[in-house]
Design a protein that fits this description.
The structure holds two protein chains of two kinds. Chain A is mainly alpha-helical. Chain A has a single domain, classed as Cytochrome-c3 Hydrogenase, chain B, CATH 1.10.645.10. Chain A is 47% helix and 11% strand. Chain A contains 17 helices and eight strands. Chain A has a three-stranded antiparallel sheet with strand order 1-2-3. In chain A, a hairpin with a 7-residue loop joins β7 and β8. In chain B, 20% of the residues lie in helices and 29% in strands. In chain B, strands 1-2-5-4-3 form a five-stranded mixed sheet. Chain B has a two-stranded parallel ribbon with strand order 6-7. By secondary structure, chain B is α/β, with parallel strands linked by helices. Chain B has a domain of 95 residues: Beta Polymerase, domain 2 (2-Layer Sandwich). Classes of the chains: A mainly alpha, B alpha/beta. At the A-B interface, α1, α8, β6, β7 and β8 of A face β3 and α3 of B.
Chain lengths: 409, 157
């Protein structure tokens, strides 16, 4: 029970209404149903005039116990759960999970599958950044950017649908490779998109980069010193906007990212505007990676040569006894994963995404923990908004780019 | 005592020369370093790794329930050094009876929410934590769902 006596009331009261200096302060509740929190974040803010004295984030409204759910399904079935964690970047989560389990299994993934993963993960980054840019701009008051961003996002979702049959919950990366053979005509489709995309980014920039209202609302707002961000567990574009060149794709390359030529954009201004610039530049870099991957796509198999893990081809299953047995065993009981524990980190659009997986040698994971970027980033909210004006909160938390499904799990 | 196969590892050696009693075991597996630390020493070891060995980031804190084995809980700390591009995992084993361990919020303030999450879902108390409340579940929730003896389905009677 909380101090208020209301069951389920989460927050103990903030300070007395009377502050030490004798001034009156008020507590403003923002959320959990607030349009600019993009989900169900609740912020309790103690105000002195228009200045925030104290801020307390309250999370957990979207907690689904997904880590417990992981312990009930076999490794391949768990892929579908990872989509639903960070629902704006489903393929990044698929990739993190697949890489972690493949590390436990010691599986070798063929080049075509690796490159396809890189290409689709970068399209996911574009997808996520487009949603972020559109909604962030709408929060600050620039309505039209949203419509432009969602035009391109629609095409990305159609590409996902072409590959996996699903627009959002794709589950396209499986343990050992891909779920399906890449569809016919994917190259033209991706190529057509990526040929026009850079000019579309120019359009967004035309609307925002030199827009005096945009600059006025974002420049010099929402700064947190770099040391504090590292201390609080902030990752991703926020660190890069403060001048730290950190990116798991470069630092700890996975899925053959080391073969691609791209830059890690950084800024030093460390404000909302710098985070905007970093993400826009990241979109251009992702487009570069997608182009390289589409043009240089190696041929060959798209799933690993591991009959005990990967489902056999339909043709083989109908003609070969062994393939039929493997098919039956994988479908009915899954595959066993050697005992051990791994921590696999990838660079999701929001920052460092880590999968900590413990196996006890059975077909079901013993424990799965997701180190999600939104959780760490959101923790620094009080550090960012305390002492600033209430009007800047929207711009500030918008620049963090959190997803509440990713935070609460 | 440091296992022999970790004698080559710079981080493991540094921790051992800092405090020989702190390490109770360890492993280098699949390219990842894991050190088992005596629970009483966790704060001093973390402080040493952060300020002396440049592991400036605490990536996550989590736990594993080994029920019904004893010691039942493992508390896991994933550390990251941006400069050295290295990671190290620390593991502390805790008994199943009133599990408690010193909080590392004095070393990384960001440990705050991670430890609250472990407290909420596993029921492990973190001593000297500035704000140890439930974080995901409501205040009046009973039990700790990520424990292995907590059922997945069923109606509460």
């Amino acid at each position: 029970m909380s101090e208020t006596g209301v069951p389920g009331a989460v927050i103990t009261p903030l300070e007395d209404q009377q502050s030490e200096t004798g001034k009156r302060s008020m507590v403003l509740n923002m959320g959990p149903q607030h349009p600019s929190t993009h989900g169900v974040l609740r912020l309790l803010m103690e105000l002195d005039g228009e200045t925030i004295v104290k801020c307390r984030p309250d999370i957990g409204y979207l907690h689904t116990g997904i880590e417990k759910e992981f312990e009930q399904k076999n490794y391949q079935q768990d892929v579908t759960l990872t989509d639903r964690v960070d629902y704006l970047a489903p393929l990044s989560n698929n990739l993190g999970w697949a890489l972690a389990v493949e590390k436990l299994l010691g599986l070798e993934i063929p080049p075509q599958a690796q490159w396809m993963r890189v290409m689709l993960t970068e399209l996911t980054r574009l997808n996520s950044h487009l949603v972020w840019l559109g909604t962030h701009a709408i929060d600050i008051g620039a309505m039209s950017v949203f419509l432009y961003c969602f035009r391109e996002r629609e095409e990305i979702l159609r590409i996902f649908e072409m590959f996996s049959g699903q627009r959002m919950m794709t589950s396209y990366f499986r343990i050992g490779g891909l779920a399906l053979e890449p569809p016919r005509g994917w190259h033209q489709r991706v190529r057509k998109f990526i040929d026009v995309f850079p000019s579309r980014v120019d359009e967004y920039e035309e609307l925002l980069t030199n827009n005096p209202i945009w600059i006025g609302r974002t420049r010099g707002v929402g700064a947190i010193p770099l040391e504090d961000m590292l201390d609080w567990g902030v990752t991703g574009p926020m660190l890069r906007a403060a001048g730290l060149k950190i990116d798991a794709r470069k630092d700890e390359p996975y899925s053959s990212y080391d073969l691609f030529d791209f830059e890690v954009p950084t800024r030093t201004e460390n404000d909302v505007y710098a985070r905007y610039q970093v993400r826009v530049e990241e979109m251009r870099q992702s487009a570069r990676i997608v182009r390289q991957a589409a043009d240089g796509m190696p041929s060959g198999p798209w799933k690993a040569d591991a009959p005990h893990v990967v489902l056999p081809d339909r043709e083989k299953m109908k003609t070969q006894m062994e393939a039929l047995i493997y098919h039956f065993k994988i479908v009915t009981e899954g595959f066993r994963v050697p005992e051990g524990e791994v921590y696999q980190v990838i660079e999701s659009p929001r920052g460092e995404l880590g999968y900590y997986v413990v196996s006890d040698g059975t077909a079901i994971p013993y424990r799965v923990h997701m180190r999600t970027p939104s959780f760490g980033n959101l923790q620094a909210t009080p550090r960012m908004v305390e002492g600033t004006l209430i009007a800047d909160v929207i711009a500030g938390i918008g620049s963090m780019d959190f997803v509440l499904g990713d935070t609460d799990r | 005592m440091l296992p022999d196969n970790l004698r080559e590892n710079a981080v493991a050696l540094a921790v051992e020369s800092f405090d020989g009693d702190a390490i109770t075991g360890g492993k280098y597996d699949r390219g990842e370093l894991m050190l088992e630390i005596a629970p009483a020493k966790i704060v001093s070891v973390c402080g040493f790794l952060k300020y002396d060995q440049n592991f400036v980031r605490l990536s996550t804190v989590t736990s594993v329930d080994r029920y019904p084995a004893e010691p039942r809980f493992e508390v896991i700390y994933e550390l990251h050094s941006v400069e050295r591009k290295e990671r190290v995992r620390l593991k502390c084993r805790l008994s199943g009876v009133d599990p408690a361990i010193e909080s590392v919020t004095s070393v990384w303030r960001g440990a705050n929410w991670y430890e609250r999450e472990v407290f909420d879902l596993f029921g492990i108390r973190f001593l000297n934590h500035p704000d140890l409340r439930r974080i995901m579940l409501p205040e009046d929730w009973e039990g700790h769902p990520l424990r292995k003896d907590y059922p997945v389905t069923g109606t509460r009677v």
